[in-house]
Design goal:
By secondary structure, the chain is mainly beta. It folds into two domains: 28-151, Sandwich (Immunoglobulin-like), CATH 2.60.40.10; 172-259, no CATH class. The chain is built from two helices and 15 strands. The chain has helices spanning 2-25, 197-205; strands at 30-37, 40-41, 46-51, 59-62, 74-78, 91-97, 102-108, 115-121, 172-178, 181-186, 190-191, 211-218, 223-228, 243-248, 252-259. A hairpin with a 2-residue loop joins strand 1 (30-37) and strand 2 (40-41).
């Protein structure tokens, strides 16, 4: 029994040591910054930080002297203290609240960042988190620089780029008939929000047609080009002067909206 206990203790110590070594070899960024309400320090407010796909695994800090930094307006959390093993490309949500107002910023993990500074503000008139020059009191998505009151609206893509309150309807529509096996088609109008073969294939797959590859004949190179859907292989841009082929396992009709090619 004693030897069994010793073995278990050795096992758990070994697991702990491996965890420490892993954390040292794969350090996660430290997030810190300042928090305000307008121009005043938001001391006493709470910053909650968590992975977007695991909101229950949260780190918290109090802004100001009562928090991790002990400095007015400052806060700090260490992503190494999360239970979730975050990796490059993972989204981290940073939420600041004083119990009445709140603001949210997102951070895309880069394990090479080391220490990352964020400025948070509970007053929308002082927020420009995406750096597009438009504050959150008029910017309907302050975490996306492609969306603001001066952005070009793309019709029919389901996104309100110019913060008008709704997506713009397209003036034109077209249909692509999809057969089982190979289908050939052209694009008489440019599909809204679709620029390349991967995007087109995934949009058609959204109908549940289980398509596998999109192809075209490149007249400039005299070569066939293919884009295997769902893989990181190169995709090709679309135009209104070429013909395309797609291989699908089910039949259907892809109806899309768009505008004339320019």
């Amino acid at each position: 029994m004693t030897s069994m206990k010793s073995l278990l203790v050795f096992f758990f110590v070994g697991i702990l040591a491996l965890g420490i070594v892993h954390a040292q070899i794969n350090p996660k960024p430290i997030l810190y910054g300042q928090a305000f309400n307008g121009v005043a320090a938001a001391d006493g407010s709470t910053v909650n930080v968590y992975p977007q796909n695991s909101p229950g695994d949260a780190l918290s800090d109090t802004v100001g002297a009562a928090g991790n930094t002990g400095l007015s307006s400052y806060w700090k959390v260490n992503l190494n203290n999360l239970n979730t093993d975050v990796n490059n490309g993972d989204k981290i949500v940073i939420n600041l609240t004083d119990g009445i107002d709140y603001t949210v910023k997102t951070y895309e993990v880069n394990l090479n960042d080391g220490i990352v500074y964020f400025s948070l503000n509970l007053n929308p008139a002082f927020q420009d988190y995406d750096g597009d020059g438009f504050f959150a009191d008029v910017d309907c998505n302050d975490n996306n620089p492609q969306i603001n009151t001066n952005a070009e609206e793309i019709c029919g893509d389901g996104i309100d780029q110019d913060c008008s309150g709704q997506d713009l309807s397209c003036e034109f529509s077209a249909n692509i008939t999809i057969f089982v096996g190979w289908s050939s088609f052209a694009l008489p109008i440019k599909p809204a929000g679709i620029d390349n073969s991967e995007q087109l294939g995934q949009a058609i797959n959204g109908l549940g047609l289980d398509c596998e590859v999109v192809m075209r004949y490149n007249g400039n190179t005299q070569l066939w080009e293919d884009d295997i859907l769902g893989l990181a292989d190169p995709s090709f841009t679309l135009s209104g002067t070429e013909g395309y082929f797609i291989f699908c396992n089910q039949a259907g009709v892809f109806n899309y909206e768009g505008n004339p090619w320019v």
